[in-house]
């Protein structure tokens, strides 16, 4: 464990907490894409298949349970909670995410570390996470005004993978046999997808204005 | 030897 990875995990945890806060405090999920939340639930379930077989550390196990539990809870809330579900922007959240699922799965069948069920699903979860934010970014552009908590959620979600890139650089420099090309390349693509969001987020922060994404 | 494919990252 290094400071970059810890910072990344904490930032990721903050993004989940911000989203839970928004949903429970405002009883609203306006501006949040259910499709992105469902993709993230799939990412965590397919990535943590080793949850009960490989014990890395208490921290690792607890964080996996938190991410799986929170992502499923958010999907449940947005689909079935009688108050929250009314504020879901159903007509704006129309990204055809089957394409993302299909492409990621095909890519995982071709590019993986070992051709085992666990490794193929792990690679699938890495590729899927890289593009899982797309429905959310499209929804933010369509809904125009971005409420603070939704904006902060996306900001922290993007920042966490940037910390992980620093972590991979650090591990590559300090550990001889460390190579995680699948994670690194996907992580770079994932962070790049946030680039324009970060730019407009910074501008809105500098001008102390509401976050406006160009349609 | 521990294979480096053990996923110790989240």
UniProtKB/TrEMBL annotation, chain A:
Record-level GO BP terms: protein retention in ER lumen; protein transport; vesicle-mediated transport
InterPro entries: ER_ret_rcpt
Single Gene Ontology MF annotation: ER retention sequence binding
Keywords: Endoplasmic reticulum, ER-Golgi transport, Membrane, Protein transport, Receptor, Transmembrane, Transmembrane helix, Transport
TM regions (residue ranges): 56-76, 97-115, 121-141, 153-173, 179-202
Family: Belongs to the ERD2 family.
Designated name of the protein: ER lumen protein-retaining receptor
């Amino acid at each position: 464990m290094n400071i970059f990875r810890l910072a990344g995990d904490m930032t990721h945890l903050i993004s989940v907490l911000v989203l839970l806060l928004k949903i429970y405090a405002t009883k609203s999920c306006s501006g949040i894409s259910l499709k992105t939340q469902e993709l993230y639930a799939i990412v965590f379930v397919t990535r943590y298949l080793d949850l009960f077989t490989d014990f890395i550390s208490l921290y690792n196990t607890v964080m996996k349970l938190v991410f799986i539990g929170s992502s499923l809870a958010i999907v449940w809330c947005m689909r079935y909670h009688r108050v929250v579900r009314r504020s879901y922007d159903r007509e704006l959240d129309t990204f055809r995410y089957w394409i993302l699922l299909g492409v990621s799965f095909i890519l995982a069948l071709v590019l993986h570390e070992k051709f085992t069920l666990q490794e193929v699903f792990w690679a699938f979860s890495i590729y899927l996470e890289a593009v899982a934010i797309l429905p959310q970014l499209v929804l933010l552009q369509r809904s125009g005004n971005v409420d603070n908590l939704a904006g902060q959620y996306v900001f922290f979600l993007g920042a966490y993978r940037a910390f992980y890139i620093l972590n991979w650089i650090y591990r590559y420099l300090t550990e001889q046999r460390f190579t995680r090309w699948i994670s690194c390349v996907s992580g770079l693509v994932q962070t790049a997808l946030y680039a324009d969001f970060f730019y407009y987020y910074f501008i809105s922060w500098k001008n102390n204005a509401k976050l406006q994404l160009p349609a | 030897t521990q294979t480096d494919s053990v996923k110790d990252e989240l």
